[in-house]
Design a protein that fits this description.
four-stranded antiparallel sheet; about 40% helix; alpha+beta; Sig_transdc_resp-reg_C-effctor; five-stranded antiparallel sheet; Beta-Lactamase; 3 domains
């Protein structure tokens, strides 16, 4: 049965999921675990949701390079498959007792003989971390004490694994950077990663918007805000931004979020195009040539958007557009509006 000291440590680990500094919270969570369980080495790993690679978030007694290299080998072992299928995290000392159906004992395998025992460790325990029904990482503990991780120790680790999983989930960490009412996703050159608790942005259905995301990924800058007309007269406020550096998230990933909005100022899609080009400093003639209309038509659009926005001048209207993100740029013009 867990002691009062162990229960207090488990409670403190749970509270760390509220911290905004994930890296510091992960390190503190391992330190709290070291107060509750015997350990000489521990590592908390996140799993890249696109590649499956494991990256260290925090460690005790091991470098990130060493832990990540061990993880590459560990996932090829039968023991890894045991870890994935057990509700209670298995330990080396419990291996002989209650895992007879999973083939060779861990102590009889090459990983123990070549990696664990030479390092001086006599017991170990591994938990698979799942968050919102997704595998998000692992936590490994090793100690030089033999038979240290009995059933009570395994149950204690199991009790804090949900907190470790919340800390290790890179998608949850990114989702926490956004307003709660925004549809959102992470976009990389190869895939779209849906975020927990968020709907996939509707605007990603459009090839032009996906092209804009690719251009933004290759540009320098932190954020760009857009106004995007959707189907059926629906409009969206859209932001493309660089997520904060997060282990498990590719550095070229783009965080996109959208929120439905009423047509601002009653602008039409064509007026929005004209306003965007005017915000770049283009003349009426240049806008007319780009949109294949007459300068007189552009002049009429300018008059309409001045009246709708209540702006006293073209300069005031374009300043309003940049300030409020009333922009719908073509991919080749996106860099002009990226915030740095």
């Amino acid at each position: 049965m867990p002691s009062h000291h162990q229960l207090a440590a488990a409670t403190r680990i749970g509270m760390l999921t509220r911290e905004h500094d994930t890296a510091a919270a992960c390190a503190e969570a391992l330190r709290e675990l070291a107060l509750a369980l015997p350990l000489d080495m521990a590592t908390l790993l996140t799993r890249d949701p696109l590649t499956g690679a494991h990256l260290q978030l925090a460690g005790i007694g091991s470098t990130a390079q060493a832990s990540e290299a061990l993880a590459v080998e560990f996932v090829t072992t039968p023991w890894y498959r045991n870890v994935m299928t057990r509700d209670l995290p298995p330990s080396i000392s419990a291996d002989a007792e209650d895992l007879p159906e999973y083939g060779p004992r861990f102590r009889e395998g090459w990983f123990y003989a070549e990696r664990v025992r030479p390092a001086g460790f006599r017991d170990g325990m591994t938990g698979a971390l799942r968050h919102r029904d997704r595998l998000v990482g692992m936590v490994h503990l090793y100690t030089r004490r033999p038979d240290a991780y009995d059933t009570d120790a395994r149950r204690l680790l199991a009790s804090v694994m949900p907190a470790f999983a919340a800390l290790a989930d890179p998608a949850a960490s990114v989702a926490g950077q956004l307003p709660t009412d925004a549809g959102a996703a992470l976009v990389t050159p190869d895939a779209v990663l849906e975020l927990p608790g968020r709907t996939r942005p509707e605007v990603l259905r459009e090839a032009k918007l996906r092209h804009l995301v690719g251009v933004f990924a290759g540009a320098s800058g932190l954020r760009v805000r857009l106004l995007w007309p959707g189907s059926g007269g629906t409009w969206y406020r859209v932001a493309l931004r660089r997520p904060r550096p997060t282990p498990g998230i590719a550095p070229d990933a783009v965080l996109i979020h959208e929120s439905p909005t009423l047509p601002p100022y009653g602008l039409s899609p064509r007026e929005l195009e004209v306003l965007t080009l005017a915000a770049m400093g283009w003349t009426n003639r240049a806008i007319a040539e780009a949109l294949f209309v007459s300068p007189r038509t552009v002049h009429t659009h300018i008059e309409h958007l001045l009246r709708k926005t209540g702006a006293a001048s073209r300069a005031e209207a374009t300043a309003l557009a940049v300030r409020d993100g009333l922009l719908c740029p073509a991919p080749e013009h996106l860099a002009f509006f990226v915030e740095r």
